[in-house]
Request: fold
Amino acid sequence: MDWIFDNFQIVAIVAIVLGSFVKQFLDAKAEERRAREEMERNPPEEVFGPDEEWETVPTAPPPLSRQTPPPLAQPPPLRRSVEADEAVLKRQQEMQERLRLAREAKAARARELAAAPAAGTPSRSVRTAGIRGALANRAETRRAIVLREILGPPVGLR
Reply:
């Protein structure tokens, strides 16, 4: 019940819209009833006057004439030149070679990253030494400050 009083404008608008739909429906029904009564009081005049006569409709349809369509023109066959085929084949081979080189470079880079430890990351022993060991390392201290800024409460709420 409180919602109705809190949102009285919405309820009023919905009631007005529903009322207009009902009014349109009732007006349409009344118009149909008036038109029907008018038709009963004043029937329409006949389509043909008393001096007009009906035309006679032929009983048999006219004979059908059969026409054959003209033959379809055959499209010319597709012709490829040998040079175009060779150019396409050469381009595909070049693309395969570039793809192979890209895959080899990616695999070599992955092997390099796996073999060399990342620069600037502390060893596992520093990380396991606890908070005192982590704060002794400058990179870990910076990382802790940045993580606190990112994961902590927003500045506006402090």
Remarks:
- The longest helix spans residues 8-41.
